[in-house]
Structure prediction request, 601 residues.
Amino acid sequence: MHSFHLITFAAGLLAGFALAWSEFGAVTERAISWAGPVWSLPLERTNDPPAIEIPDIIRRIDSATAPHFPDLLEAISAEADPTKDALLLELLWTRWAEIDPTAAAAAALAHPEDSRQALRLVFAQWGSRNRNEALAAARSITDERRRYIAVDEVLTSWRETDPEAFLGIMHTLPEDHQKHQRRDAILTLAERDPIKAARIAAAFSEDERARIYPWIAGVWARSDPATAMKWAEELAMPSARAQAMKAVLLQWVRTDPETAGDQLAKVPGFSAEIAGALAQHDPAAAVRLLDKQLPARQMVESTLQLIRDMRNDADVLAMFDAMENSPQRDQLVIKAIEQEWYDRDFAKAAAWIETALAANDLQNNPLPALIRAWAMRDGKGAHDYLETLPEATADAHRLSLFEGLAGYDPVQTIEDSKILEDADRSNVLGQVVEHLQDTDPRRATAAFQEITDTEVRQHQGYRLGVAYAEQSSPEEALRWAEELDAPTKARVQTGIVRSWVRQDPYAASEWLARQPLGAGRDAAAELLISTVVEDDPESAFDWALTIESEEARIRHASEAVKYWIQREPATVAREAIERSELSPDERALLFKELKNDGPER
Prediction:
């Protein structure tokens, strides 16, 4: 663009703003004040220069001769408004370089503020008018960084004017400019003549072709994706061929997703990435493409990634609607609700599910998953939504509500869940225990006491034992466990001892020595042995001998012997076996272990 047109455009833009202000009822003086501050812009220096507005200085820049530019630069640089300052400086440097590029370049190099931008403007204009003269001047700059900027601007203006000729002289350029200028020149030429760009790139090195071919393909595909794909398919280099075909598809899928989708089989591995590009324009087409191209598991994972990247809930709904009725679709909907969508809008998700269920478009009902997730984030919101459903539907999903509330407000849920049947309440209380055991183990034990289902008590007892011992003390946890029924007590004690032997195996062993024989003690002994056997195999061996179960006794004693003979002569372990109260058959098994695992020392 000629500088006159640029300046005329800027003046018209500012004048238009001022006129608009005046038309809204402000006086003309106020409009001019908004358009710009008062400027001191003399053609000749005086002690008290006249005041002129921004449109006036723009006219002065456009009509200035070489001697006027230093004064104009000084006046503009004194302005405190950086936005207006930047606009006027851009006009000034461009016009100055057009009138007197040598003086403009010298001034830009001496300019104290943002000389890099000044250099860019001056040498871009100079290079577009006389590239050889501009390039010689740029190369003469002594400062390395400024020299690079100036040379690069001249080359850029040349590249944009005649990319084909520019590529012909690339080998004469400084090496630090060649890489990105070659890339940009090829892209510029590819926009005008992709066939010619491809022919020139064919003479480059293999590494360069691997980088440049996909760029050409992507630009080419904007205007003629079918021809670009045909060219990409015929490339000899496998890696460049795959990347070029991918670049074509990334463009093609935006304009013709069905045809592009049919091409995906030629470039395996890129379906999800290409669908991601398509989803920005047509989410429904993106999910249809994934459904067609990928196995079920990959399709679900890739579509979930698309949902993560989306910001518009309507696009997510369009993706769901586009999928055919299938178990994969149900799986996707449920996972999306559980993993992604509930972070956006619970109510909108619920409304869509209700509509899909009414139309028999879902084989499985994802509403329980939604209600559970909703209640964990917003207990009142989930409760209020449940109350809007028909009574039978609400009753069917009430357990899901309480399962979510167990994470939202576990303490209140202990009381509120009394309206549930025993089996359902046990499940809810089990989740309450999970949420409380790490923060409030005493309250967790109170909730645990109210669980009536044996299976839930067994499952939660072990984990509660571990948590209680870690949060308070093993001794306190064991005192509480004494109050439990026998099966639950054994399970809880196992968890407590597991925690205890990790914290202090010797204190745990002292407690264990006082316990009566039985399954509970055996389980605790096995935990203790597994913790100490590597560091203290002799103690592990002694504990193994106290286990009632013959199978467990020999298994752990054998393990202890293996570690023992790695630390001490095998005769030490042999003597311990001979002194033990093991049966002859048990001793024979351990002696065999000695013989197999190491020579006597």
